[in-house]
Amino acid sequence: MVIEQDLIRLGSEARLFKGRAFSFRSKHAIGAAVLTASDDIFGGCNIESIISGLGSCAEQSAINHAVLHGQSCFRALATFDKKQNFPCGVCLQYLLQFAQIDETDIEIIAFDEAGAYTKTTLSALLPKGYRTEHNLTALREYAGQKR
Ligand SMILES: [Zn+2]
User: Which of 48, 59, 103, 141 does the annotation list as catalytic?
Assistant: First the structure.
């Protein structure tokens, strides 16, 4: 359960990283942040490419930012945009892989520029997402070795 202090931290970090968006094509800057099981926060922004289809969503870059710091268990993911926007299907599926490591239903919080937010969960947004059974043991063992 994400507490009020975590919400403030997540919203603040997602707002900060919105300012780092590399969105020369769309001019649509989006920020995101993840809260890890270790209570750390990592931000991300959308990164566009001159080659269509090669960019990265803010949510995915926040997740990757945490992984670069050795963390792969998440409690919450926040987005920050002009209006409240939830992660795309690709990002939800990407997040579900990490949620399977410790079977956590990750909270998803969408912030808007006024600071208002809506909370939901990964399972509510992606109730029938693909869950691995074949690679689950390897995934959990690998993540455990990284801690
Ligand atoms: Zn996405």
Answer: 59
